[in-house]
Each structure stands twice: as structure tokens, then as C-alpha cells.
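Collaborator request log, item 7. Partner lab (contact: R.S.) asked for a structural prediction of Four helix bundle protein to inform their binding assays.
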Amino acid sequence: MAKNDCFEELDVRKYAAEIGIEVYDLVDKLPLSKDFKSRDQLSGAAISISNNIAEGFEYNDNKNFIRFLEYAKGSAGELRSQAFVLSKAGRIKEDDYWDLKESLLNI
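Returned to partner:
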């Protein structure tokens, strides 16, 4: 298993948490801030990335950790898809979408 003592030390988890913060900032902007369902879906998918990394780490075996890393990657894809649709619908600025996409592709 990993040499880290806790998931908070993992660089990938730190990076995922930064993306979560980025998304929380994004959903506070108009017009998305008034679209409660989309806002909740985006923030839920974003926090799921970090949470899956943490949960997988806590199982203390590589097989489960890898499985949860795959879930985290899936959540990143879900978030990219949602952000794409919202950018095309004018709910997210195009620049914000591209910045988020770039961050998510680095997970």
C-alpha cells in the first residue's frame, strides 16, 4: 500500500480538493448560482473526486484503492460532461469551462 500515513498527504487528493474549491467558486457565479439542480450536481461530482480518493485509501489495500481511483476518474469525467453542457447552455462562461476541463484532465 501507499507510504503515506493518511489520505490528506496524497498529492492527487490535494489536487482534487483544489478542483472542488474551484467548482464551489464557479457555482457561486450567476447565472449558475440560481440553477440549484445544476449547481448541486456540479458540486456533488466535484467533491466525489476527492471523497473517492480518500475512501479508497482508507481500505489499506491496493486493489480497493485502485478501484476507488477509477471511481474518482469517473467523477471527473462526469463533471467535465456537466460543465460542457452548461457552458454550451450559457450557464458557465466558456473560459471557466476550459479552465475546469484542463484541471480535470490532470487528475
